[in-house]
Amino acid sequence: MIVANYLVAAAVFCLGLLAIMLHRDLIKVVLGLSLMEASGYLMLVSMSYRRHATAPVLVNPPSGQSEQSLVNGNVTDPVLQNFCLTAIVIGVAVTGVFLAIAVRAAQHYRSVDAANLTELHG
Amino acid sequence: MTEKARTTEKARTTARAQAETEREEIGTIRARPGEVLHRPVLAFALAAGALAVLGLAVTGLPTDTAQLPAVARQAMRIALPTWGQTEVVSEVVYGSRGFDTFGETFLLLAAVISVMVLSRGREPRSEYVGESSAGQREQAELDSDGGSSGTDQQQDEARSAERREESEDAAPAELPDDLPLGSRAPDRAQAMTVVVRAAARTAAVFLFVASIYLAAWGFTPGGGFPAGAALTGVAILLYGALGHQRVNRLIRPNLLEPIEVFGAAAIVAIGVLGLVLKGSAFRNFLPLGETGTILAGGSQQLYSGAELLEVATGLTIAVFSLLGMSHDWAGDDSESDSDSGSRSGSDDEGEDET
């Protein structure tokens, strides 16, 4: 039942959102953001799944199938798998930048609490 | 009202006021950084709303019995005849949606540059971690200036301790590998024990070969991304086990940064060559080799190789920039003077934690 995967992805997304909203600790905010990204990966991979399908690889097809029958046959969605790979790289990039900002903020303010980052207050 | 009753009433009022003050104090304590949940009602309401909307939305997504979308069927059809590609996901990554990968790679490059800009110190760097020589003279001059005023003895002590530590760091008597077997394990900041060092050296060779194999030969062509990430893993493994002195000949900014930019330039060149020679960006312009061999897939193999360079160096630069961020703590003297008034007591606690 793939809908269960979708619902778990939605729940993990909301968990990440909750972490971002509830915590002022910058590291926890970055962790929440990573949770939200991870829910995206789960969603994309779940969407590419097909029942009784095989991998979209045109080498050594399963018994009883040829490469040509695989092309028209039942395989998982390769485009969504590509999107998932793209999302992972973007997730890593975003996490890296946010962590660098968190470390700099910690060094400057001696605190990772967002409420203490008050230098730009009017 | 009798005198006794009046006294009791007064005592009650005092007690109530005291309790209120205490409650306020508890409130203040609770409001201290990191302890309370921030705006819980709003957060839970928003999360519940998002869950409801997402829950409704995902029930409308295609189920696991639906037919593949047209774009996926098209990718399956053209993978082998047009791109000579047996792994359809790689065909999508480096072939029919090569432009997406191009955008993603340059987003990664932008992120790496952001991390570098955010994490760089005041002095130019020759290595990421264990930076010991650059700026030492300038720092000594600054320190002697600050010391002569004699305003902050504690700061001076801390600085001299830090200097001692750094000089130990800069000139160790010998590398951990030169010590005879059976001698004490080196300082954790220098390297790990001989068992870990030997295991890491062995594992690193296998991991390195496996990464290159993944990019060059695994379901050829393709695999530049995961192979690059695995190479970064090798770099971190060697740094963790052998210490910065052993890896800083390879992992240093003026070697990694040119390689990264070369990888990025190669990707641009592959896209432009496809555009010029075949009429669309990232189109294959090389003859397709035999399927399943290292030359299969034409220009996709070049694209994958350029990605390998770009991702391996980019992630390594980002990781080691973050690792090397620990030194530049104290601000300028003028800065710290003006800040000291506005900083609260909690600042000192933070110093120890981080």
Q: What can you see in these coordinates?
A:
The complex is a heterodimer of chains A (122) and B (354). Chain A is built from four helices and no strands. By secondary structure, chain A is mainly alpha-helical. Chain A has one domain (2-51, 67-116): Helix Hairpins. In chain A, helix 1 (2-22) runs antiparallel to helix 2 (26-48) and helix 2 (26-48) runs antiparallel to helix 4. Chain A is elongated, with a radius of gyration of 21 Å. The mean pLDDT of chain A is 87. Chain B has a domain at 70-130 and 191-328. Chain B has helices at residues 3-30, 40-58, 70-83, 88-96, 98-119, 136-149, 153-170, 194-216, 224-242, 244-247, 253-278, 299-323, 333-340, 346-353. The longest helix of chain B has 28 residues, at 3-30. The radius of gyration of chain B is 30 Å and the shape is extended. Chain B starts with a helix and ends with a helix. Chains A and B meet through helix 1, helix 3 and helix 4 of A and helix 2, helix 3, helix 4, helix 5 and helix 12 of B.
Write the layout of secondary structure elements.
The complex is a heterodimer of chains A (122) and B (354).
Chain A: H1 2-22, H2 26-48, H3 67-72, H4 78-109
Helix pairs in contact in A: 1-2, 2-4
Chain B: H1 3-30, H2 40-58, H3 70-83, H4 88-96, H5 98-119, H6 136-149, H7 153-170, H8 194-216, H9 224-242, H10 244-247, H11 253-278, H12 299-323, H13 333-340, H14 346-353
Helix pairs in contact in B: 3-4, 4-5, 5-11, 5-12, 8-9, 9-12, 11-12
